[in-house]
Structure prediction request, 446 residues.
Amino acid sequence: MLFAILLYLGILALSGFGVLWGIGSILMGFDRYEEEHAIRTTPLSELDSVAAGPTAVQGRIEPADRHIGTLYDCEACVAYELKIEDTGGDSSRTHVNKSEAVPFDIVTDEGSVRVCNAEFDFHVSEDRRWSEKRKSHTSPDDQLARFERDWQIPDLRAGDDRRYEMAYIEPGDTVYTYGTAELDNSLSGEQSKPLVLTGRDGLFFVSDQDPDELLRERRFVLAKNGLLGIAVAVISLAVFLWLTGIAQIFLGA
Amino acid sequence: MTLYVYIVGGFCVLLTVWLIGSYFRRAHDNLVEARESCDAAWGNVEVLLQRRHDQVGNLIEIADEYMSMEQNVLAGMVEARESAIDASTPAEAAMAQVDVRESVREFYSIAEETPELRTDEKFDDVRDALETIEQRLENRREYYNDTVRRYNALLQQIPERYLAAHRGYKPRDSFEADEAAKGEFSVRDRLQN
Prediction:
């Protein structure tokens, strides 16, 4: 009986979540569509020909001042996204959900442009991703145990699973970056035409992938995400209305 | 049909209309943005073209001072500069650029034979400035042409093609003289006519 109630509540919650997920999927499709358009229509800039405005730059990363430090797989990150989450039964606990970046320069043959804030999206390849899942009955290796201590992660509860996900970029990586170039007079002592990339016009992302690869990944993404999102949202709504009894009581089903 | 079916079906229709409507709106906005990018890239080229007009003007002053015997070269530069200033489209500007470059090259070759001119500091400064401008102009020209190529490709896509037709957007000219024009050009021939 208890199992049936839990199952009922679980499906109900899932169907409610499904409506939101479907709408989120459509919005995600639009984000990727905008990125695809930006990559397709914005040529790579030669830095001495860049003026203020939407700009795509491809170059090597060099930290402007310092790097973040060792972070598990990454020995000298300049930017990362990290999430550590425990799941078990029908609950989940998020211990870390953080992104951080230090100022870094994207250096090309013609000059460099600075990225100062962490407000960009990551689209990194598998080489720059780390993910791991650990069950409560397994012990972390030394490196992972040290990592958990550094981040003050509590012990894993019996029966729970812990998932680690990290994306990062480090000095020396060749990255494709799209953002809005602005003149930054605070850097005027360092170079003749100090440029900084920001997310002022909305789109701001960094990727260690080639633009062609990014385009391939985004091909028909709006159609795919849109159709999937509509299907999931509509079916979830139908299930939600039915299971809550709204359909039978108020809607004449 | 029960109200339940209408509600679920209506939700499906609503999402579909929202998806399609947003897609067209964004496609339209992106088209306008791509067109503005072409304008911005051309604006960056024009800034350098203007600077080059100024430097060529300085060069003409120097030529006038030292090379009274070579009036035809001077006239060639003046004419090329004027046609460059008058150019109103990228295609015209590209043609004029060939004229300017060739007339300046002609001037340089004659300047090599004029010892007083070679030692003139002002001439050196103008020549260095022109070289720098030419290099930067080349980068900006490539960037502009790439922007235009991408914009013109966008105009071939659906639904952008129909949106562009509706707004009267036409493909843009790239900033390059055709090869025939480059090949046929000769300052000396022109000046002798």
In short: Chain B has one domain: 55-192. The mean pLDDT of chain B is 81. Chain B touches chain A through 32 residues (CB under 8 Å). The radius of gyration of chain B is 26 Å.
